[in-house]
Structure formats: structure tokens, C-alpha cells
Amino acid sequence: MAAKRVGYEDIAAEYRKKIESGELGPGDMLPSVKALAREFGGVADTTVIRALRMLKLEGLTLPKPGVGTVVAGPVSESIATRVARHAVTGSAMARNESSRILRIDTVGASESVASRMGVEPGTPVLMRHRVVSRHGVPVHLSTSYYPAYVSAVAPELSDPVSTGGSRELAAERLGSEQKEVIQEVSARPATHEEKTALGLSGDPVYVLQTMRTVTLTDDRVVEVAVRVASSSTVVRWVTDLRPGGE
């Protein structure tokens, strides 16, 4: 019987296991494409490249210019990474992530949320408050706010279930693709709830807050969200600086 042909999913699974077990830690370098191809019986470079892309989309690795591929540390991913992952896997969350809903409610928009949605403060909006964990360890709190036209077309967002693709669902129902995100990052003292949820101790404790506003191609706001993570978390995104780059 012929030996089973190694595919990119097999390579990704092997290195995912090494990362999740701690055999490879943050900053450790993965073998080169050529070395991995040899390690897995002479598979094509393209097979290895697809495996590395999968690990990157799962948030397990990141490219380091001039070095290669390294294991990622605590990183707050950009929304672009999550949109790309959803397009490939059907979920915005990485394989090692889980999301637990803490609260879903209709609330009056605060001044900061209302100004980004273009509505009056106090306007009813749908709020989804959840904690996201990696390997069972809480890494950030995320509170998303949706205008009435989103909750009207996507009533599922009122259910206490983490979809891993709320914006994608809303955009599809509204018939318009996601176009742009504005991300505003700041540091501030943690609240008691945030310290408890994220397992932070000490006084004072500072957290990193990322406020994002996502618009559709028709310029409607689909989501305003606030993400809170430990101040040791690295916020990372890539911007194409070439003329015409997005």
C-alpha cells in the first residue's frame, strides 16, 4: 500500500501541536520552507507555504522580515487578519481561541459610541460583551455595539452564542461588503471587572484599549467595538505603503 501523501494540513497540524504543547515558544523560529519540504518527505514548496499561511491565519505564527517565520507571542490581531481568516475558515477566531458571552443587551449608546455611529447619545443599540481566551486563558474583553438596522436584519446577534463572524453576517444581510476600519488605541487603568475577567492583579493595573469603527462599502457603520487587553499585549497590523496599496 502506498504511503499517505503529506498535505499542507498535515504540516500545519504537526507544527500547531508543537506550538500548543509549548515545545515551540514565542519568538522561536520555524524551519525554512526548503527545510520543511525535506522534513516532510520532499513535498512541494507551495504545500509548505500553504501550511505556513494557515498557521499565520490562526494567529500562531508571524513573518519576521529577514529571519523567517516565528512563533507569535501575546498579540492583538488586526481586524484584517480576522476578516481574512473568516474568508478561509468560516470563523474569525483562531483554532486555539474560544469566546464566551458575558452579556447581551439593548443599551443607550454612549457619547463615544454614538459619535462614531453618527447617532444621538442614548440611541438604542445592541451590545454584545464577551471574553476571548486562547488555550483557555482569557486574553481580551470585547464589547461590540450594533446599530438598529444591523440587529433588524441579523436577529441572531441577540442570541448568547459566539458566531465568530458577526460582522460578516451583518454585512451579508445588508448586501454590502466591509470596506474600512478605524482603530484607535489608548492605555488606561483597568476597572475591577476587567482585572477579574482577565486575571490581572496589582494596583494600579493598566490595560490597552482598542476602539474600532467598521464601515461597509455603502458607508454605513456595521460595528463599533471596544477591545480591552493586558498592557503587555502587542497590537499589530500591517499597512501596505505602496502606491495604491490598501
Written description of the protein model:
By secondary structure, this protein is an alpha+beta fold. The chain has eight helices and ten strands. It has helices at about 10-20, 35-40, 45-55, 80-90, 110-115, 150-155, 165-175, 190-200; strands spanning about 60-65, 70, 75, 95-110, 125-135, 135-145, 180-190, 205-215, 220-230, 235. It has a six-stranded antiparallel beta sheet with strand order 4-5-6-9-8-7. The chain has a two-stranded antiparallel sheet with strand order 1-2. Helix 1 (about 10-20) packs across helix 3. The protein is globular. The N and C termini lie far apart (about 50 Å). The model has no long low-confidence stretch (mean pLDDT about 90).
Looking across the biggest beta sheet, what order are the strands in?
A: 4-5-6-9-8-7
Mean pLDDT: 88
The helix content, as a percent range, equals 25-40%
Radius of gyration: 20 Å
Q: Which segments are poorly predicted (pLDDT under 50) over 5 or more consecutive residues?
A: none
N to C succession of SSEs:
HHHEEEHEHEEHHEHEEE
